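Q: What does the predicted 3D structure of Ligase look like?
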Amino acid sequence: MDRSAADMTDLEARSLGQMLRDGLKELNAAQAARCLVAVASLLLVLVTLDPFPDLRNPDVTTVVGGRMALAYISWAFLAAVAVLFVAGTDAPALKTLVTPLHLCLVGWLLINIVLSESRGVSMQRFVLLVSMTSLAVLLPLLPPTQRSFNLCLGAAALVLLALCYLGVVLAPQYSIHTALDIAEPQLAGDWRGSFGHKNVASPVMTILVYVGIYLSAVGSFVMGPAIAVLAGLFLIFTGGKTSSVLCLAIYALASLTYVTPHLWLKRIICFVPLIVMNLLTVGSVLSPALGAMTRLLPLDPTFTGRSDIWEFALAAVAEKPIIGHGYAAFWDDVTARQTAQGAEWATSAAHSHNSYLDLAVTIGLPGLLLVIPVFVLAPLGNFQSAQTHNRSGALAKLFLTVWLFGLYYGATETFLLERQNPIWFMFALAAAGLHFLARFQCVAQAEPKP
């Protein structure tokens, strides 16, 4: 989106067909190509190159992994094209990304890779992370107007939802967990759509609910409600308890933050519950007092025994607190590591089930301390600045809501800096969107042709 003119004010109800026709009239070939790259990027991360994996096949991991070369090529190609498009029209926006803090984070990641326990693995996965994150950061700049951005977002959401529902109806064995699944047969009946697991489908559907609400707020009274309702129904059938609870809770938290005038009050609203949530989860295995408090609660804050995994991950942090074990290189082969008696199963975990703890394990405490100001603290300040300057209120609220959802979802699952993870992509997109809205204004419509 170009950054110079007034915010969108056309909130009239229009049919989807009319919106598409209006959008196409405003676009020339170059602008249409930018939108195509934006939609392709969203579909690549949401649908992936391997939709509907057969979880009954013992070799499913090998089959998917064998196509990684195509994934690397696709992400690198789209990222290169996006850079070429944006560099020519949005150089001032790109320059704002070059900050000492951002450079320190990238520099630390490179140092961490050099000192990684599996240097080749870390470097390979870092390349994919760079391509994917670059696309997420550039995506708010690709569509030429806010209306075209909305259309790109809505089109990608509808394609994904159509695929997921068609999968449930036409090929349920590939889109619903079954008792024949090799890894987790106990999830039988939970919908997963085109994704490989319900725990990926459920947070994505939560984000699509927010997208539907946003599109409704800016005048799309057909596409917006359709996306929100379809995503909400799918979320219920995934059986994803964490995402289902967070969906409405985070939207309420974002709405409260939106109407709160002062930044320090916004910080209290956003961060105090997040700190409490982390104390009641990971903190409960660090402090006996906190552990005793959590046992008195009417719910299980360890989310079905994840305390063993957290203890195992904390022990790994203690082994290498500064440099960490290497970006994305720790959890591949942990079965040989020592665990407490009775907690041996923790070595079969794929991650630490806490994004902040996982960063401490992989890139060390300095890496975690660099991620926090960039992705936890700065976005809220950017939202305050965008709100102060009255820049695209509805869009800023969407980015705020997705960002907040990511922060809280990260207290129970791992996604921060995770390559090819749709939650990371949408989270990075939201953080970048807030960064740009704090500094530039959105164009509502394309300039009239001479």
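A (community wiki): The structure tokens above were generated from the sequence. The longest helix spans residues 355-388. The chain is about 65% helix and 0% strand.
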